[in-house]
Amino acid sequence: MRQQETFTQLYRQYAPGIRKLCLGYTGSAAQAEDLLQEAFMAVWNNMHKYRGDASWGTWIYRIAVNTCLLYLRKEKSKPQKVDTDLLQNMADEENNQESEVQHLYKCISRLPETERLIISMVLEDLPYEDIASIAGISENNLRVKIHRIKKQLTEMFNSYARV
Asked: Which residue ranges form the domains of the chain, and what is each CATH number?
């Protein structure tokens, strides 16, 4: 199979999950779409380096996670300036009802990096073995982390609902 056909097949298979992963990191659909494209550009540019040590999915998710982490580091280092339009948009958003799914992704985007990675992959129904491999932890440790993350998300979600 040619590289372009392989890439197209991989994109179709993994793009929806990677999009959700990126949304979990950013909380913004537009930024998630940009990161999705960036991640798949990296996949395309590095396909010749794929050694087959891990599945295509694991390899692609690792690239996407690294893309998201790099984005977050760049954002953290940028000076923060007050944008009155942004503040107005934020106020308007708070006044509007958000769907539960959107709220869940906002809660996920507030988690620490590792927890975001893990829960995003759980939501994508990736096998625990693959998630543990990507996160660099044992499956038992992964199960404990997932339990704690779910508890933390429930608390975050419920506290926001009371406000």
From this structure: 3-162 (1.20.140.160)
Query: pTM for the complete prediction?
Result: 0.56
CB 6 within 8 A of CB 113: no
Amino acid at 123: L
Q: ∠ CA(57), CA(54), CA(147), 5° rounding?
A: 65
CA dihedral 111, 115, 117, 123 (to 10 degrees): -90
Q: How far apart are the first and last CA of the chain?
A: 54
User: Quick one: what percent of the chain has pLDDT higher than 90?
Assistant: 28
pLDDT at residue 21 tops 70 = yes
What torsion do the CA atoms of 122, 118, 37, 28 make, to the nearest 10 degrees? 90
38-47, 105-114, 153-162: range with highest mean pLDDT: 38-47
Q: Which residue has the tokens 């992959």?
A: 121
